[in-house]
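BUG-290 | component: ligand-complex export | severity: low

The export step for iron/sulfur cluster jobs runs without errors, but we want the raw record kept on the ticket for reference. Input record follows.
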Amino acid sequence: MRSDRLLVLVLTRRCDRNCGYCPQGFDDADMSEGVLDAAIDGLLPRLASPARVKLFGGEPLLRPDLVGRALARLAAVAPGTAVELPTHGKGLPAVESLLARRPEVEVFVSRPHPWAARLRGVVHNFLIPPGEAPAMTARRLASARRLGYARFNFLPAYFVAWTPAQLKGLSAAFAGLRLVLGRWAAAGRPVEVVNLSRRGSTPLYNDGLVVDTDGEIYNSNLILADAVRPHRGRLRLGDVLNCGLLAARPAADVSQVLSDAFPAGILASTRAVDAALTEFCLSLPAGAAA
Ligand code: SF4
């Protein structure tokens, strides 16, 4: 008996950005409507409650039609299911009216577009790159707050190399952010640190039932990382179009695949920034974040 609560639907493997820190591997492949329908109908009922669905990519809003189809089908099969939609944000205006009718959708936007700040419950994925001056990090946070963002998911760049000096800078950046959050809370304007409500066995990626564009099912969206391509089969759980979930467990656990796929130096940096993020979250003063 599986106890997954998250269904990740990889609507497309394409992205129209090329962020230097992005670990994803891209392909010219989109999910078919048949795979999408089979994934929702076949796997959603197998999730433990409360279930969540993540509409993922690539950049999922390169296929707004699939986003709309997924939301319509979810509303029919399991109304009110919580949905996450991570995006760089460029395609959001095209789905504004759709999102207005779907309060269950939580948009995670990586670029703080002024327009997106007015979306109900929007979360800003706040990336911190190696080498950014701590004062600049604090200024970016204040700027996003001024635009109206009140929910933040802090993400130091994962799966890239950080030097010892850059790691020291990250600790200083987190110390600065802690002060800013504390000041806002004292002024009666606390923000939500979304990291506090999310857990996973690997940095950045999610555990759950993950359906790739071709209908293959995996137990983590770690399989989307370029470095993990040769190891994908070790995390395979089945195929939504052929027999669904396999009874057998995957050949390896996610942490083992992570260790086997990435160079030791990149893994060490990733673990170090993840530990710094955890310490930041745990050390937020009471009331500094919802
Ligand atoms: S981080 Fe997001 S927007 Fe940037 S290249 Fe990767 S998938 Fe695309």
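Assignee comment: Attached the raw record above. The pocket of iron/sulfur cluster is lined by residues 15, 17-19, 22, 24, 58-59, 88 (CB under 6 Å).
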